[in-house]
Design a protein that fits this description.
GO terms for molecular function: ATP binding; protein kinase activity. Pathway: Cofactor biosynthesis; ubiquinone biosynthesis [regulation]. This is Probable protein kinase UbiB. It is a single chain. With 546 residues, this protein is an alpha+beta fold. The protein is built from 23 helices and 11 strands. The strands form 3 sheets. Strands 1, 2, 3, 4 and 6 form a 5-stranded antiparallel β-sheet that branches. It has a 4-stranded mixed β-sheet with strand order 5-10-9-7. Strand 9 and strand 10 form a beta hairpin. The longest helix has 35 residues.
């Protein structure tokens, strides 16, 4: 029932802001076009606000999942008209707040203390408000400036309803859409469900922040604020307050004389460092979560906040991505095609030459161009068309990484449109691959395995002794088998008057032995069907003879 109510609300909001005007109705089947023409929202008066504002208001009214969708779109100026992108920027940190008094109540219930006892001062007016939580400025009793993040009341129930609807739509798409099974929409929704519910746990976010802070300790690339664990739990997070210029405020960055080219290159460096060096990356890097320290404008430093969504990759995923990217950078489309086939992303019987040609057609136009001249939206569209042709499957475990890549591209486009993404990333990947397969990587693997090797070392003498005994037993068995076969052959040659039944029985037993010519420790489990049948024939004729 709650799903139906939520669906009705979504339809109501679409009608309220007349978002049906933005749907590509001409591409829908005739039956759906008729349904949309007869939809009741045509009874609503057309809103007077601009289209960008209408979309933003609708996403805000629909709640956190839709707000996050708008946040991602806000960074894609190449995909959206400017008026819509500018409006969606407000979703990054200007979502309608909830009552500050409600926030105080949540804090006191979560920490079981009065805010007056915890804080020297607490600003009842929110500093920022986002889709999942809002933030208040405060001071600890020792005078340290902090921010207090508080989960929105009742947000869990709304998210549960939206996730249930997403599963319903994904299930229908997987069943009835021609590309549904290949794109794994149910798996993607399942991954997103885990991600967004993880984001509701502020203690998990605090742990993510601490890990990232350790990874970039004393780094000139990026600064992660300190977490105050004594005042942090599932519903409340207290973190060091940081000051910087919002990364999207280009005018202020220019006023400080910030080296935007270096800042953009550092952004690429941070991303690849997190993905390949640490396998632990900030996966919600939209401009509302990123600030810039401009104390040294020629060597600017990023400041990150909001660590609710992070991602990680397995060593196999890391290696696969690095090899693919390097092959792309080197324009080795043959290797790209072979990597896709060997990894199972496309069927084994895919014609390599055809797949290579298709990839070249998509990727060749984007090289040797500055970022401002490359539309990754168009590239993704072409790759999707290629995927349909070759039945390429979506890898759900990489969806979060793909989302982060889109955020990074949008960020780089705003900072320094002439950034050469390829020349910035290629040296990093080449160095990483050398370290992985060279002596440093081998020594690192040895060091990781030494403790387990030492733990198993007392068992090695006994394992060697058991192995030697097994080899001896196999040799004895093989010797006895050879003697049996030899005896059967001698008997066959010496017995000229033996009856036909004996001949058949002897041949049957010999065939049973010969058909089982592979002897292992578990040889009883490997006796072939032919051996059993031939042995049975031998017994039959022996009994018949008697």
């Amino acid at each position: 029932m709650s799903r139906i109510q939520r669906l009705i609300k979504i339809i109501w909001v679409i009608g309220k802001y007349r978002l049906d005007e933005f749907l590509p109705l001409t591409h829908l089947p005739l039956s759906l076009r008729i349904l949309f023409m007869l939809a009741p929202w045509h009874l609503f008066p057309k809103p007077q606000q601009p289209r960008g504002a209408r979309i933003r208001f609708a996403l805000e009214e629909l709640g956190p999942i839709f707000i996050k969708f708008g946040q991602i779109l806000s960074t894609r100026r190449d995909l959206l008209p400017d008026d819509i992108a500018i409006e969606l920027k407000y979703l990054q940190d200007n979502v309608a707040p909830f009552s500050g008094q409600t926030a105080k109540t949540i804090i006191e219930q979560a920490l079981k203390q009065s805010t007056d006892d915890i804080f020297l001062s607490f600003d009842i007016n929110p500093l920022a408000s986002a889709s999942i939580a809002q933030v208040h400025a405060a001071q600890l009793q020792d005078g340290k400036e902090v921010v207090v993040k508080v989960i929105r009341p009742g947000i869990t129930r709304v998210i549960q309803q939206d996730i249930a609807l997403m599963f319903l739509v994904a299930g229908l798409a997987e069943k009835y859409w021609e590309d549904g099974k290949r794109l794994h929409p149910v798996d993607i929704v399942s991954d997103y469900e885990k991600t967004i519910f993880d984001e509701l746990d502020l203690q998990r976010e605090a742990a993510n922040a601490s890990q990232l802070r350790r990874n970039f300790e004393n780094s000139s690339l990026i600064y992660m604020p300190e977490i105050f664990w004594d005042y942090t739990n599932t519903d409340v997070l207290v973190m060091e307050r940081v000051y910087g210029v919002p990364v999207a405020d280009i005018d202020t960055l220019n006023a400080h004389g910030t080296n935007l080219k270096k800042l953009a290159e550092k952004g690429v460096d941070i991303f690849f460092t997190q993905v390949f060096r640490d396998s632990f990356f900030h996966a919600d890097m939209h401009p509302g979560n990123i600030f810039v320290n401009v104390e040294n404008p020629q060597d600017p430093q990023y400041i990150a906040i909001d660590f609710g969504i992070v991602g990680s990759l397995t060593p196999d995923d890391q290696s696969y991505l690095a090899r693919n990217l390097l092959a792309f950078f080197n324009r080795d489309y043959r290797q790209v095609a072979e990597l896709h086939i060997s990894s199972g992303w496309v069927p084994e019987d895919t014609p390599v030459n055809e797949f290579e040609s298709a990839i070249r057609t998509v990727c060749e136009p984007i090289f040797e161009k500055p970022l401002k001249d490359i539309s990754f939206g168009q590239v993704l569209l072409r790759l999707f068309q290629t995927a349909r042709r070759f039945n390429m499957e979506v890898q759900p475990q990489l969806v979060l990484l793909q989302k982060t890549l889109l955020n990074i591209e949008g960020l780089g486009r705003q900072l320094y449109p002439d950034l050469d993404l390829w020349s910035t990333a290629q040296p990093f990947l080449e160095d990483w691959m050398k370290q992985r397969v060279g002596p440093p990587g081998l020594w690192k693997n040895v060091k990781q395995h030494i403790p387990s090797w030492l733990e198993q070392s007392p068992e090695i003498p006994q394992m060697v002794y058991d192995a030697i005994n097994q080899i001896k037993n196999l040799d004895n068995f093989s010797h006895n088998q050879e003697r049996s076969i030899k005896a059967l052959k001698e008997e066959m040659h010496s017995s000229q008057g033996v009856s036909k039944d004996y001949w058949i029985a002897t041949l049957a037993f010999g065939g049973a032995i010969l058909s089982h010519n592979t002897v292992t420790v578990d040889w009883l489990q490997e006796i072939s069907v032919q051996s059993v049948i031939l042995a049975g024939i031998g017994f039959y004729f022996l009994i018949k003879r008697k």
